[in-house]
């Protein structure tokens, strides 16, 4: 079982991204379940979405409290939400940010970090800061849990059409290509 | 939610392989409706049912479903419109929940008395007030005594399969009752999962011929009085009314065997099987069991597996068919155990326990021995019921083997 928690803001498409990732995983023959969080959703407010992937059928339909990976599609969210809550030791962070690894305050649980300047790229592609599909590319690059090809096929089958599909395909590819992955070495506890 | 379609593998038996898709529970319900080929649907959107009727409307607009759709001005009209359709011989469908179901109550009662085999999903939602728009079984539980068959689903796949089966159950000549397919708001309505889509030709063969108004009809070629005045204390009024009610009760009892038969046929033709009334999970050598309903069951089964590894002899009993209440199937399960914990996703205000626990106590009376039991209430208004919650249920139920029965229910999310 591999568990992912998406963090974003209402209107940024993190729930949709979670669905496209689930579709890509099913494409690859895996089982996947995606559940949006239920709260007082509104545009701009912090929202969460959950995704489980497994080689076996997934029975539990619950939220995720101890994810293997956190995908944060918004660069400002860490000021208002503890996105790292419950992250498993040795976990991964896929973060939309223009900052360098040294500028981020990361807890000890984070071992793998994928950083993508997604807002800049999104403004380039969409003329709007829509980072969700970019960050799926960044996730594939950082973790290797899903292939870029499977994500592309899932995107083709999604509700994106015409120019929107082309733009999002570009976003996926650039998210994959322009993510920098870091491995953080930590000394084993004495 | 987007739908991704997998390419079929290029093998010789590819034509027999089911199409694998990814969809949310509300879309799975809509796809199940389309497979059953209704003639008429009437809709009014309400959270968390809205995306279900949006998917139905889209299937019709895209030409993938050949049905008339009526955008009624409210749920009372939705069900009234469908009654007219059913009386004219149409296979009919709608979906609602919570306040919409409340607004529908008057025709909701009439549907069972007229024995109209209408299928309606309840995308279950907790009761207001306090204000909330999230899941819980309070709406469906509140109307459990109106004579609809009520079947609860555990997974997105089961939503799709059971929605198709519901039409066969409702239209069976020994039943002729409306059927509610209950899918949990939030966790099943928006939960997105891998689903196998049955082949339309297989479903057509499963459904067989349609015959929904042989007993009561608005038909110029068969003029009859529909829903005439009965009852009172004179003439044939009282005995006529009693015959109606006894016949409804007989239809409900017949539903137990029909639901079982329809599930067996679904397994033969489509290749997926479910316990039609009550599922026993790891129960045969269990000392005690927990009892669940709906989408909470997956996490509960995972917790049972973990507890088994830790040496606890626990099993699980899941109710799928809640109305008619599966008394005999439950008695068979209860004979295997010495303690029982029942988890409800709604509140029984009169008894200070969960409604499923309240119903279960009636069954326990017929067991012929004392079975220590207790009530747990959780997952109200969208609250999560997780594996740790079920470990608590397992521990407190196990304590009944040696300790006293609590008189108060345990509120599982009280300190979340």
Domain tally of chain B = 2
Shape verdict of chain A: globular
Question: Gyration radius of chain A, to the nearest Å?
Answer: 15 Å
Strand order of the largest sheet of chain B: 4-3-5-6-8-7-13
Quaternary form: heterodimer
Secondary-structure content class of chain B: alpha/beta
Instruction: Give the CATH superfamily of chain A.
Output: Pyruvate-ferredoxin oxidoreductase, PFOR, domain III
**Strand-residue proportion of chain A:** 15-25%
Helix content of chain B: 25-40%
The CATH class of the largest domain in chain B is Alpha Beta
Could you say which overall geometry of chain B the principal axes of the C-alpha atoms support? Answer: globular
β-strand percent of chain B reads 15-25%
Looking at the overall shape, the CATH architecture of the largest domain in chain B is 3-Layer(aba) Sandwich
Q: Give the CA-CA distance, first to last residue of chain B.
A: 29 Å
Protein name (chain B): Phenylglyoxylate dehydrogenase
Domain Pyruvate flavodoxin/ferredoxin oxidoreductase pyrimidine binding (chain B): 33-230
Domain Pyruvate:ferredoxin oxidoreductase core (chain B): 286-389
Keywords (chain B): Oxidoreductase
